[in-house]
Design a protein that fits this description.
This protein is mainly beta and 225 residues long.
Length: 225
């Protein structure tokens, strides 16, 4: 099966890639915007998500995006996320998908693609997944990754890595200056996506892209309630 690839590039230089639908908005609360180049517009429930766009939530806002492989990406308030690269492997899975997180809080639930296909990046860390539900808090100077289900490898940009294998395992990457950072592991996380789950209906429900049936709600199971 032939994959189709578009790497992040100026929209004018690659219009076919820019318009490739890779998912849609399942939950929108308050102000959620799409940013593509200099253009900015609101996202509503049911709107498609296309490659190379940045999605940004405002104050007291949230969003859940469902990708074509049924990956669920949830954003809390004041969060930004960019879908940098997607290589399709047929119509309902990816051979390669790269997601760049700005500041904010996020939940990531893998879909039907091979787990090695997923690559999540923050300013300080790279995150690999293996059948995973992750809560991620990305701030200037620190990234925190809390494993809720599955397994994950979290690395600094200088390739110091920690394996997360048990629910509650947490990697904390902290900038120390001069382009360096430290990474440590704990199983007593001081943060999770719980508050965002509780404040927005459906934000922590997991659904398939084309499903018309109610999704599985992880609010109580995975939000510490």
């Amino acid at each position: 099966m032939i994959g189709f690839s578009c790497i992040a590039a100026p929209l004018a230089a690659s219009p076919a890639c820019a318009e490739t639908r890779i998912g849609e908005a399942a939950v929108i609360q308050n102000q959620v915007l799409r940013i593509a180049g200099a253009a900015m517009s609101p996202i509503n429930v049911g709107d498609q998500v296309v490659r190379d766009e940045t999605v940004r939530t405002g104050n007291e806002s949230a969003a859940r995006l469902v990708m074509i492989d049924s990956t669920n990406l949830s954003l809390g308030p004041n969060a930004t996320l960019t879908l940098d690269r997607t290589v399709f492997n047929g119509e309902t899975s990816y051979r390669d998908i790269a997601i760049r997180l700005g500041t904010g809080v996020f939940r990531f639930v893998t879909g039907h693609s091979e787990k090695a296909a997923y690559k999540i990046n923050t300013q300080l860390a790279t995150i690999g997944v293996r059948g995973t539900i992750l809560d991620i808090k990305s701030q200037r100077g620190q990234t925190m990754v809390v494993l809720q289900e599955g397994a994950s490898t979290v690395c600094t940009l200088t390739f110091q890595c920690i394996q997360l294998t048990q629910p509650g395992d947490t990697a904390i990457v902290t900038a120390t200056g001069g382009g360096k950072s430290t990474i440590k592991k704990t199983n007593n996380p001081r943060w999770s996506f719980a508050a965002s789950c509780a404040s927005t209906a459906g934000l922590c429900t997991v659904t398939d892209l084309a499903s018309n049936t109610p999704g599985q709600d992880f609010t109580g199971i995975l939000c510490g309630r």
